[in-house]
């Protein structure tokens, strides 16, 4: 079911946790609210669930305004981080709880279906304390889904799991959402988690949505410095426009001339003399040194620098490079051998396709 938030806001005393928010979450999507602690994502989720009364605005499910409905009358279920399973009930009775409360007696078929969906067949008679954290989370999920909600809300449901299990459950949740096709709204502060699972992500900051986009767009073309830095390393440098035409800006950063496609300027200064920030993701950059440095293709953005640190990270090496534009320009290079290809102290040329450069307004905090 499509969820529409219209001017939805929440204040606690004189503190505004959520500024008036307009947001449409399409039916059947896996939607993530992503942001640092305190940015208002849980409050937003709780207003959708009916657990928090909005200060202003409305929540629509499909065409129905549900703002005034109590939680149990909404076709919405929530899974919390602290599973909240009943310790004295076994797995099947935990899962059946919602149906029995509604007076439904023959629950076996539906419970079995849920056990299969969350891959807990064979565990039906265990108590929660006899389950691992990941298994308990699956029970909590089954218990919410057996009520056949039209929307499932997930509030940091994987927060208590160790990293490996978290990664596994992220894929599981995505599989389950695809299988049942209802709308999932997932709250997390973990950008990798949001990007793994969600088809659309709203990055929140200070009670506002800073950018709403699919994961690749957020990463490749962030609209603000906050989003650029929240989703990885962005190598932001200050630059000045020297020359521009309809397709491209030529900009100068610490003595180097760089090119920026006009379409990736994000509304930053585009006239000669204007200041802007430009960024490029670390894995988009190639490092060349020695005689090969002379052969860097014309038309690529290039900076000169010296390696100050090389950290072996298994899959890749992270180089930090002192350049006139930035003292710690980060570059990730895929590892082929055991040791980093280049050592600290090496003079290098950093170069990349201008199409990977993004521009941002220089006047942001
Ligand atoms: P976290 O990841 O830490 O849960 P969050 O992004 O989900 O953070 P919220 O729980 O939505 O953030 O809280 C947003 C802000 O509103 C916080 O500054 C919080 O302290 C404040 N807040 C939340 N609930 C209340 C309340 N009942 N009374 C007063 N302030 C509150």
From TrEMBL:
Source superkingdom: Bacteria
Catalysed reactions listed for this entry: ATP + H2O + polyamine-[polyamine-binding protein]Side 1 = ADP + phosphate + polyamineSide 2 + [polyamine-binding protein]Side 1
InterPro entries given in the database record: AAA+_ATPase, ABC_SmlMolc_Importer, ABC_transporter-like_ATP-bd, ABC_transporter-like_CS, Mo/tungstate-bd_C_term_dom, NA-bd_OB-fold, P-loop_NTPase, PotA-like
Top EC class of this enzyme: translocase
Enzyme Commission number(s): 7.6.2.11
GO MF term list: ABC-type polyamine transporter activity; ATP binding; ATP hydrolysis activity
Description of how the protein assembles with itself and partners: The complex is composed of two ATP-binding proteins (PotA), two transmembrane proteins (PotB and PotC) and a solute-binding protein (PotD).
Protein name per UniProt: Spermidine/putrescine import ATP-binding protein PotA
Originating species: Streptomyces armeniacus
Gene name of this polypeptide: potA
